[in-house]
Structure formats: C-alpha cells, structure tokens
C-alpha cells in the first residue's frame, strides 16, 4: 500500500465519479435479480389462474425491472468509464510530469522502451483496475448482500447456501487461483515490457545487427521472451478457465440446495408453493453478477504488477529540484562559472573532479578531451540536468540551485549530439524552439544555417515531413535544422555537443564555420573531439590535460 499511495493521491480527485457507476451497476444487477424473482413468482402464481387484477402489480414490476436493467447498465458503463478515463488522464499526466522532473539524471536506471511501456500500457492497466475489478466487486457485494436477505426471508438454508457460494466464488476461488497462478499474472507486465524493449532495440539496431551477423541471436532472445510470456498467459488462462468451472459448479449446488430446502418448506406448509420458484431461480441471477469475480481477481493480479511499476517511477527521488524562492536574474550579458566542481551521473562515481571553468559573455570556447572525460557532463551541469557533488555552478555569480530551472534554460541552451527531430514537418520541428514563430522568422533562421535554399526548393517547403528521427534528411541537414531550432529559441549561451560527429572533414569544417557564424553574439561552448579548430574559437580547453583552473572569453586570449 505504501508503494501504491502516490498513485491513489494522483488519481484521488477523479475517483469520486465512480460512486454513481457503482450505484447504477448495483441498480442494474438488482433489477436483474428482481426481474428473475418477480417473473418466477408471476409464472407460478399465474398457473393457479387467479383474477388478472391480482397479477397487475407483478406485471408492471416485470416491465419496470426489464426496462431499468438496460438503462441502468448503460448509465453504469457511461459513468464508470468516464470516471476511469478521468483517473487515467490524471495519472498519465502525473507520471509524465514525474518523468520530466526526473529527466535526465534520475532516469539513468531505466530503458527508453520500458519507460514508454510504463507510460502507455501500465497506465492503461488502471482502467482495467477500476472498470474490471473495483466496479464488479462493489456491485457484486451490494447485490449479493441484498439477494441473501431476500432469499433468507423465505428459506434460511437456501440463503446460507447462497451466501456460502458467493463467498466461495468472490473470495476463496480468487485466493486459491492467485496462489496457483499469481506469479504468472505478476510476470505478465514485466514480460510485456521486456518484449517491448527487445522489439524496439531490434528495430532500431537492425542495420548494425545485419551488418555484423548478430540478428539471429537477438531474434532468439526475443523469441525466448515471447515463449515465456506465452507460458505465463497460458497458465493464467488455464486457471481462469478452472475458476469459471468452479463458479458454474457452485451455482448449480446453490440451485439444488435451494430446490431441496424450498421443497421441504413447501411440504411443511412454511412456504407458499408459488414462492418456490423465487427461492430456486433467484441464485441464477445473483451468480450472473458474481460470475465475473474470479476474472476480476485475475485482472487485479495483472494490474497490480503494472501499478507497482508506476509506483516505482513515482517513488524515484528527484535529483534536480526547483528552489522554493527562486532568485531573479539580471538581463545580461551573462557569465557562467564552474567552481571546484566534482560531479557524476551515478552516486559514488565521479566523472569530473575539481573542475574550474569560466565562460565570459561572447566567448567561443572549445571543450575537448577523450571519451569519458566529462565533456557532456559539463554541458549537463550548465543546463542543470545534473547537480555537482561538490563545488557549485553559477550564472552571474548566482548558484544554479537558486534559479528556477525553466528560467535557467531560457538563458543556457543545449544542443546535444543526438538532438531529436520529430516525425512531423520542418516548420513544426522549428517551432519547438519558439511557439508561435511566423513563417518569415522560420525562413530567417533557416537562412542563418544555410538551409533556406534547400527548403525553398522542396515541393512542400516548410510543410515537408522530415521522417522518423529525421531519417529523410542527411546528417548535415539534421544538425543544421536542430541548430536552427536552438537559434530560434534565442539562447544567450549556447552549448553545441559534437555538432560535426560522423561527418567527413570537409563537411564538418563547413558546418562548424556555419554554426559559429550563425551563433552571432551568443556565448558558445563547443564540445568536440576535433583538434583542428584553429582560429574558429577563442580558446581550446582540454579536460584530459586541463590546468587547475581555466577561463575563457573574448579578452582571455586565444
């Protein structure tokens, strides 16, 4: 319960809408029981040929129960799904917001496909929990209790048998089934996530896997996951079938007990003969409602595993928190400093050790060094995707931890080496940098990165689709388009992480010149493996062979 408490808190305000659904469902199920009971009495009574006026109340009741059953069932479906979808929406927003708070430092232990599965399929399991678990059990509890009271008014043995049968079907059978197949049900969500992860990795890495002849091993591993998932589903289905058989058996036993007890009561004169059908047939209607409880318990076991996975995300501590009283920043120009900073992505494993760095307004600085020396970690520190273990990072002398993160990221922009392009148009990808930008503004920024002539020559112009991850563009075009988006956001301080990666020397040199020219007056931190930067930058800082303190700026020399 402690792990599920954040989920309940996130969905709590919307769950009040479930009450009308429970009442409507109980009314629909009660109408079914009433229809069966009154119809049984009416048929039995009519066989004695009484005056028709003696049957009018029962006739009207049959009509009322028949009509209200369908209406109330519709109301239950409408209100129940409306409330469940509201809970679903709130919870999905809550989980997404948590992921946004955790990204990227707090998500190091998660796989992208697994997170997508948690945000989609695991959140959808909440809908099953509400509509297939909570509602059926609540309705069955209300209707079952009322039916036991109704039957008990005419035959206590039949009522006791009905109560025992309902308890067996609603509690004992699900408990036994959970003990027998609970592990299989609990493995369904993790195995489906594992299958999603494997499928995503196979599709994304297929060219490399084919090139190295490694696709067979991946397919075998994926097939093994599919087999294990199938086995879990088969075991779960087998136990569900057994539970359905037990429910049918219990229904028959309750009917026979009611028939025997009612016959004895009629023979003894304690029960009018026309009420015997009521005692015998009412359990049939009751078990029509209770028959779904074992399946509801199965859905609960499967959904509980999904809810635990969501609870794990919501319980993950946020490493980057906003200050309670953020400090206002001056308009600029801005100076950024790292002061004796030690930092790392994994607790206890530092990548940077006691680093000092100063970026003065308008600086062009290249940060170089071997892989793993912490170049990208510096970028993450500057946009506060990560906080230092020791030391501090400041903007205009103010510790970043005292600045609202969204305000900081209006000043310091980060263009990673794998900047994502969405499967939409060129214009839509650019407007991520500035919502509401006009087409003329988009053309201006495309001209700055030397893409305007190419875009103008396209049949659809700015409305051209770039494909998934920008696959319809060349490597240079993808990087230029991502830079245009960053320029459109107009960050005073711009971090470019490996902007020429995977490009040939001539293309890389041309692109680098265009990037720095397009940056204009902005402060630029260029993270790269290239060493032929020459006069393009003011200073080159080597993290692999860094001095105790480094400073960069237009006046720092170069």
UniProtKB/TrEMBL annotation:
Span of domain ABC transporter: 336-553
Localization of this protein: Cell membrane
Transmembrane segments: 53-72, 134-154, 160-178, 238-263
Gene3D superfamilies documented for this protein: ABC transporter type 1, transmembrane domain, P-loop containing nucleotide triphosphate hydrolases
Main location: membrane
PROSITE patterns documented for this protein: ABC_TM1F, ABC_TRANSPORTER_1, ABC_TRANSPORTER_2
Record's bilayer topology term: Multi-pass membrane protein
Alphabetical keyword list: ATP-binding, Membrane, Nucleotide-binding, Transmembrane, Transmembrane helix
Residue ranges of domain ABC transmembrane type-1 in the record: 21-302
Any single Pfam family the record assigns to this protein: ABC_tran
Lineage top rank: taxon: Bacteria
Database matches in NCBIfam families: CydC
Protein's UniProt name: Thiol reductant ABC exporter subunit CydC
Organism, scientific name: Actinoplanes oblitus
């Amino acid at each position: 319960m402690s792990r599920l408490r954040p989920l309940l808190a996130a969905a709590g305000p919307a769950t009040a809408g479930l009450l009308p659904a429970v009442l409507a469902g109980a009314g629909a199920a009660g109408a079914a029981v009433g229809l069966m009971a009154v119809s049984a009495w009416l048929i039995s009574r009519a066989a004695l040929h009484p005056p028709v006026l003696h049957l009018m109340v029962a006739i009207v009741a049959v009509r009322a129960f028949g009509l209200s059953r369908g209406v109330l069932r519709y109301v239950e479906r409408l209100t129940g799904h409306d409330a469940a979808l509201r809970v679903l929406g709130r919870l999905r927003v809550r989980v997404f917001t948590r992921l946004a708070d955790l990204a990227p430092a707090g998500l190091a232990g998660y796989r992208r496909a697994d997170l997508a599965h948690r945000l989609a399929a695991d959140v959808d399991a909440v809908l099953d929990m509400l509509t297939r678990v909570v509602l059926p059990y609540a309705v069955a509890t209300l209707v079952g209790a009322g039916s036991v009271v109704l039957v008990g008014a005419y035959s206590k043995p039949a009522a006791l048998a009905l109560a025992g049968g309902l308890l067996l079907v609603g509690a004992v059978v699900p408990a036994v089934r959970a003990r027998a197949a609970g592990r299989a049900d609990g493995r369904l969500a993790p195995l489906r996530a594992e299958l999603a992860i494997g499928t995503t990795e196979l599709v994304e890495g297929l060219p490399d896997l084919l090139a190295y002849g490694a696709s067979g091993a991946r397919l075998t591993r994926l097939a093994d996951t599919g087999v294990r998932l199938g086995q879990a589903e088969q075991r779960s289905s087998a136990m569900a079938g057994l539970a359905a058989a037990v429910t049918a058996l219990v229904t028959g036993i309750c009917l026979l007990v009611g028939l025997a007890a009612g016959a004895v009561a009629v023979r003894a004169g304690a029960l009018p003969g026309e009420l015997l059908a009521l005692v015998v047939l009412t359990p049939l209607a009751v078990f029509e409602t209770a028959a779904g409880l074992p399946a509801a318990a199965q859905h609960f076991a499967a959904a509980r595993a999904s809810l635990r996975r969501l609870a794990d995300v919501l319980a993950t501590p946020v490493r980057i928190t906003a200050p309670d009283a953020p400090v206002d920043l001056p308009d600029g120009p801005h100076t950024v400093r790292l002061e004796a900073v030690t930092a790392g992505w994994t607790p206890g494993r530092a990548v940077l050790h006691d680093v000092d760095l100063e970026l003065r307004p308008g600086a062009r600085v290249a940060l170089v060094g071997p892989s793993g020396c912490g170049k990208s970690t510096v970028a993450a520190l500057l946009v506060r995707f990560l906080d230092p273990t020791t030391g501090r990072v400041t903007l205009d002398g103010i510790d970043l931890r005292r600045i609202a993160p969204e305000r900081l990221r209006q000043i310091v922009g980060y263009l990673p080496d794998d900047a994502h392009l969405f499967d939409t148009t060129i214009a839509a990808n650019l407007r991520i940098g500035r919502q509401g930008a006009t087409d003329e503004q988009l053309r201006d920024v495309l001209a700055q990165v030397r893409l305007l002539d190419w875009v103008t020559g396209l049949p659809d112009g700015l409305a051209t689709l770039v494909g998934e991850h920008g696959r319809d563009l060349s490597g240079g075009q993808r990087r230029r388009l991502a830079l245009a988006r960053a320029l459109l956001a107009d960050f005073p301080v711009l971090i470019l992480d490996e902007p020429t990666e995977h490009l040939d020397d001539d293309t890389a040199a041309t692109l680098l010149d265009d990037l720095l020219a397009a940056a204009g007056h902005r402060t630029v931190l260029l993270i790269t493996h290239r060493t032929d930067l020459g006069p393009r930058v003011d200073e080159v800082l080597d993290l692999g062979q860094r001095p105790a303190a480094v400073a960069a700026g237009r006046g720092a020399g170069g």
